[in-house]
């Protein structure tokens, strides 16, 4: 193997920000409770499931079946959340000034990592004698150890000068990284920001390959590097779907995005075998997710025979198969993720496309663990995937109670709280949050976690004047107007923690928000058969009288009282009742001045508003930026489009704060600014306890499956 010439690459080394030793680990800074000064503010929010992901990239030799008891190789370092890996071809090393003093590594791979609070793409190089070709047991056990692993950040983090984006699905072609990024605002509400970019690693020169006004997901580069395939809506845009996106597959020149052509109607997650064959997934009419192969006449660079595309269903009905990975070295098999009717877990399997046999790779090793998004080495000897590292993974914990998230706004720090509906006490020292079922209070440095109610509670809010008083509602969530839900106040400093019930009738009374003078509480109630807003006395509740603030046959909900007392912001579907769409309004507490603040496109969602301490901004959760990845490539998220945004209170300005493909929600503006830092769960948290996509739990009716093969196969 060739050692790159150090001299000629010295300039690149500086530009690349090489880190020639293992990068520092995330440090737990237990002091995040301290307030900072100087106009800065902080926002906290929740992300469904994220704290228990603990993903690392693992690999198994494809010869696994010949080993009596195969062991997985963990490739990534156990820090943070690492996923969506890719094995570059070895030729990428000879052009890439990887390591001036060392021979080429035994293997190298790139992946997405969320370490240090933002999405980044890393390249790791592993040294030592690897078992990658033989699958010999003893060699598997000897690897890896920290001293023979090098990490290089390719894009992301501090390199971006405060710019924040989600990165996804990286591929390396020569000296260029091809990947998804969400850093460009398409300027349209409810349009995805996901687009494919190419970054020349030596210079940082970044070029957008996706046309403007279009979103592209799941890019895959062909073995020659000439072509890139993506899943895309094209011009038609996102229709709000959160299961299968209904994308089409487009192919374009990797060089500059030109010669873009739609090759397959309805498909996602392309993976190339050679420059005229690719696999992809699609949910068939018979209900099963299945792998398809598409072949086209490839007449060399610049021309793709899109008229002559032949597609064929490859995997049979009877199991879900998706996220295919193929290799040029051995065209007789592919790797896929599956959900079999007899398993609640997602596994990686090989599928022999000639003999039509599956070989289960991961179920024999870890039957009760989800395995995601397989990828194959160019020589087809190794299958990579990611899964939760679980207990004893040997890395740093990802069980963060509070995680610092990189914020695109210099004067707003961002925290992810591992609990829903977080709210901070007016002095910023304590947090109330919900973990179903139950309401908890802790210090804002994560110490002294206490359960203050074991009943099903949702949104929380602290009284501005009476120390220790928290408002919440108890009863089922997402329920009908007549469901028994009442608002209670709890003094969390009282020993008996008694609930004071403030509403009487139990008619879905929820989302309390106290006035800044501590005298009144606004909430939503379904007592008329519709959800509208009401105001009651903060101490004695509705028995001292009730003022109906809004009235109409629609849903007004999630009110938040501004810190200067002048406004109440709330979400409402009043312009299209029952449609599922919610827009943001504000109204004076005396019922005058109703204004629409923001709407997310047509039929979109704006929810959970919360005013900034100075009342000039509102933080909210919305589908304003659509979805950022194919939902099937992630664990379950009910609303994978959820991201956190900040707007001016008059709606004249909006900024996206979070960039990921998860469900972010229930933001709160912290009354005091918090120093950024991570806080770990005292006892390790709930590792790996997340759900796979709920819609994969369903086994379609097997009777109709035979005829549907043809149906599905003929679709394109
Ligand atoms: C992560 O953040 C810490 C503290 O801010 C910093 O010292 C470290 O260099 C960062 N690491 C990376 C890889 O950016
Ligand atoms: C390709 O893979 C198949 C199935 O694992 C195997 O039987 C065959 O020997 C392989 N071919 C080559 C050329 O490695
Ligand atoms: C951030 O600071 C700028 C300049 O001081 C100010 O105009 C802006 O309103 C602040 N933004 C937020 C969200 O507080
Ligand atoms: C956390 O905050 C509490 C209350 O402010 C304080 O008593 C405690 O010492 C802090 N713990 C750490 C580890 O900073
Ligand atoms: C209603 O309240 C707003 C702001 O609190 C105030 O400006 C307005 O004069 C009030 N209107 C009436 C009719 O009281």
TrEMBL record:
Q: Which InterPro entries match?
A: 6-blade_b-propeller_TolB-like, WD40
Keyword NADP found: no
Give UniProt keywords alphabetically.
Answer: Signal
A matching Pfam family: PD40
Secretion signal: which residues? 1-28
- Provide the protein name: Dipeptidylpeptidase IV N-terminal domain-containing protein
What species is given as this protein's source? Erythranthe guttata
């Amino acid at each position: 193997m060739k050692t790159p010439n150090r001299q000629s690459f010295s300039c690149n080394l500086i530009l690349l920000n090489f880190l020639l030793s293992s990068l520092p680990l995330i440090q737990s800074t237990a002091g995040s409770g301290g307030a900072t000064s100087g106009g800065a503010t902080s926002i906290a929010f929740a992300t469904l499931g994220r704290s228990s992901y603990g993903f690392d990239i693992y690999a198994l030799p494809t010869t696994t079946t010949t080993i009596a008891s195969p062991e997985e190789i963990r490739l990534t370092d156990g820090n943070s959340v690492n996923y969506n890996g890719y094995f570059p071809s070895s030729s990428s090393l000879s052009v890439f000034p990887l390591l001036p003093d060392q021979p080429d590594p035994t293997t190298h791979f790139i992946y997405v990592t969320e370490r240090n609070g933002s999405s980044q793409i890393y390249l790791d190089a592993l040294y030592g004698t690897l078992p990658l070709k033989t699958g010999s047991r003893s060699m598997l056990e000897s690897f890896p150890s920290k001293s023979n692993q090098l990490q290089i950040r390719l894009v992301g983090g501090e390199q971006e000068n405060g710019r924040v984006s989600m990165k996804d699905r990286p591929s390396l072609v020569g000296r260029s990284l091809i990947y998804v990024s969400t850093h460009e605002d398409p300027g349209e509400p409810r349009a995805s920001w996901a687009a494919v970019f190419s970054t020349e690693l030596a210079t940082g020169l970044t070029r957008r390959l996706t046309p403007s006004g279009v979103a592209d997901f799941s890019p895959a580069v062909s073995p020659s590097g000439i072509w890139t395939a993506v899943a895309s809506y094209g011009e038609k845009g996102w229709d709000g779907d959160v299961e299968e996106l209904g994308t089409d597959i487009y192919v374009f020149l990797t060089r500059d995005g030109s010669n873009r052509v739609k090759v397959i109607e309805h498909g996602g997650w392309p993976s190339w075998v050679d420059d005229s064959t690719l696999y992809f997934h699609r949910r068939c009419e018979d209900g099963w997710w299945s792998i398809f192969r598409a072949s086209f006449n490839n007449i060399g660079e610049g021309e793709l025979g899109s008229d002559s595309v032949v597609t064929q269903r490859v995997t049979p009905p009877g199991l879900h198969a998706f996220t295919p990975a193929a290799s040029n070295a051995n065209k007789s098999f592919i790797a896929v993720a599956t959900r079999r009717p007899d398993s609640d877990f997602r596994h990686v399997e090989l599928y022999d496309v000639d003999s039509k046999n599956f070989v289960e790779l991961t179920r024999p090793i870890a039957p009760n663990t989800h395995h995601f998004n397989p990828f194959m080495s160019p020589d087809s000897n190794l299958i990579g995937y990611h899964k939760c590292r679980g207990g004893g993974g040997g890395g740093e914990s990802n069980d963060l109670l509070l995680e610092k998230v990189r914020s695109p706004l210099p004067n707003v720090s961002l925290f992810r709280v591992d609990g829903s509906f977080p709210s901070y006490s007016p002095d910023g020292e304590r947090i109330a949050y919900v973990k179903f079922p139950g309401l908890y209070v802790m210090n804002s440095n994560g110490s002294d976690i206490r359960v203050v109610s074991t009943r099903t509670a949702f949104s929380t809010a602290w009284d501005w004047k009476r120390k220790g008083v928290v408002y919440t509602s108890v009863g089922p969530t997402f329920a009908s107007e007549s469901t028994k839900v009442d608002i209670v106040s709890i003094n969390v400093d009282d020993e008996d923690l008694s609930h004071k019930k403030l509403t009487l009738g139990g008619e879905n009374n929820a989302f309390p928000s106290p006035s800044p003078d501590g005298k009144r509480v606004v909430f939503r109630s379904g007592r008329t058969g519709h959800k509208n807003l009401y105001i009651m006395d903060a101490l004695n509740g509705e028995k001292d009288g009730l003022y109906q603030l809004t009235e109409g046959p629609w849903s007004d909900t999630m009110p938040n009282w501004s810190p200067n007392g002048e406004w109440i912001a709330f979400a409402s579907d009043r312009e299209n009742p029952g449609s599922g769409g919610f827009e943001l309004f504000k109204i004076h507490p005396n019922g005058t001045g109703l204004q629409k603040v923001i709407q997310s496109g047509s039929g979109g969602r704006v929810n959970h508003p919360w005013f900034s301490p100075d009342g000039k901004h509102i933080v909210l959760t919305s589908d304003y930026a659509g979805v950022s990845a194919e939902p099937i490539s992630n664990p379950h998220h009910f609303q994978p489009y959820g991201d956190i945004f900040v707007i001016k209170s008059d709606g004249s300005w909006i900024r996206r704060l979070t960039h990921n493909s998860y469900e972010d929600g229930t933001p709160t503006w912290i009354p005091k600014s918090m120093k950024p830092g991570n806080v770990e769960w005292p006892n390790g948290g709930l590792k790996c306890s997340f759900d796979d996509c709920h819609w994969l739990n369903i086994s379609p009716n097997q009777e109709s499956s035979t005829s549907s093969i043809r149906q599905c196969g003929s679709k394109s």
